[in-house]
Amino acid sequence: MGAIKERHEPQTEPGVVVLNADAVLYSLDNDCTLNQLDAAHRELDARARAMPAHGLADPAPIAALRRTVEAQHRLEVGNYAQQLKMALRYQLCVRSLKYEVNVATSDVAGFVQFTPLALPPEPLTPVDRAIADAIALTPTPGTLPGTLLSRAEAACGR
Predict the structure, then answer these.
(1) Which site among 86, 100, 137, 142 is 20 to 30 Å from 128 CA-CA?
(2) What's the chain's Rg over C-alpha atoms?
(3) Residue 38: which region, alpha, beta or left (left: phi > 0; alpha: psi -120 to 50)?
(4) Sign of CA pseudo-dihedral 100, 9, 4, 131
(5) CA 57 to each of CA 49, 50, 63, 92: distance values in angstroms, whole numbers, following the listed order
(6) Which of 123, 139, 126, 122 is nearest to 87 (CA)?
(7) DSSP line for the chain
(8) How far apart are CA 44 and CA 50, in angstroms?
(9) Are 19 and 88 in contact (CB under 8 A)?
(10) Are 126 and 97 in contact (CB under 8 A)?
(11) pLDDT 10s per residue in the chain (158 long)?
(12) Nearest to residue 132, comparing CAs of 124, 143, 144, 140?
């Protein structure tokens, strides 16, 4: 019986929340960030296929733009991770928790396959609610003007 009681006591020890922006974005049904990355790659593939087969066209600009798209995506996801981290810190602060929660971000490359973020449908703890609110209130890269490809082209002066 003692073990059950201990499980239901409020947390008083410091905790750590590690946010992975890629996993969060992968979990959002209504966000287009990852779709924009896929669309940019499809468009660049189409541009490469449209080049003359006799070798007169230089494929280097498309390869450079592909690298720029990847760099732009990582930059935008990194910025999102930092904004999400600040939003979560704020959400934790306004809840006046009786214990410290440290917030960190995990920088895992975008090519890793993620499973959806497992937040309960009804967040049960103040930390769960803070995470859900921070995610809901933080704009994603998919809300930026234009598309990922147009932002990458603008970044390299096209």
Answers:
(1) 142
(2) 21
(3) alpha
(4) negative
(5) 11, 10, 13, 55
(6) 139
(7) -HHHHHHHSPP-S-EEEEE-HHHHHHH-TT--HHHHHHHHHHHHHHHHHTS-TTS-S-SHHHHHHHHHHHHHHHHHHHHHHHHHHHHHHHHHHHTT-SS-EEEEE----TTS--PPP---SS--SHHHHHHHHHHHHSPPGGGSSS-HHHHHHHHTT-
(8) 10
(9) yes
(10) yes
(11) 343 333 445 556 678 888 889 989 988 888 999 999 999 999 999 998 887 776 666 778 899 999 999 999 999 999 999 999 999 999 999 988 877 778 887 765 544 444 555 666 676 788 888 999 999 999 999 999 999 999 999 988 76
(12) 124
Q: Burial letters for 30-40: b for 16+ Cβ neighbours within 10 Å, e otherwise?
A: ebbbbebbeeb
Structural tokens at position 100:
């410290």
Residue with tokens 């930059």: 75
The structure tokens listed for 48 are: 């490469």
Could you tell me if 149 and 43 are in contact, meaning their C-beta atoms sit under 8 angstroms apart? yes
Tokens of 43: 């468009």
